[in-house]
Amino acid sequence: MAKKEVVASAAAAEQAAAEKKPVTKEEIDAVMVGGPAVYANKALATVTPAGLRVSFVEAYDADSPAVLRAAVLLPYDVAISVRDLLTRQLKQIEAAQTVEIEFDKDGKPSLKDG
Which superkingdom does the taxonomy of this entry point to (predicted)? Predict the structure, then answer.
């Protein structure tokens, strides 16, 4: 992408963020299933004057160089919204992964109620 296009994209993103337009169902549907989902196993965050740059990289092992897969520059209010969204989603994942098992008198396991 040429520098001129990047500047135009950044300006459009800032304008949309400033207008606080609600996200439409069509936009959500396009994001949920549109385009490829790139695998990354590391994330890096850099504080800049313009916002928080979040880079996603993939490294095959400790001896392999990290390969940049994607990066985004988020205005700080959007970065905070992303933090809150991830916190909510991860709490649900953690809750789903926490399972208590009871054993009856014969040693047969079952999921604990509650």
Answer: Bacteria
Nearest to 40 by CA among 20, 55, 24, 29: 55
The neighbouring-strand residues paired with 110 are: 102
What's the one-letter identity of residue 67? V
Closest to 58 measured CA to CA, from 42, 38, 45? 42
Mapping DSSP onto H, E and C, the string for the chain reads: CCHHHHHHHHHHHHHHHHHCCCCCHHHHHHHHHCCCCCCCCEEEEEEECCEEEEEEEECCCCCCCCEEEEEEEECHHHHHHHHHHHHHHHHHHHHHHCCCEEECCCCCEEECCC
**Side-chain half-sphere CA neighbours of 82 within 13 A:** 13
Domain residues of the chain, as ranges? 3-111
Span 8-65, pLDDT tens digits: 455 555 555 556 677 788 877 777 777 777 888 899 999 999 999 999 999 888 888 8
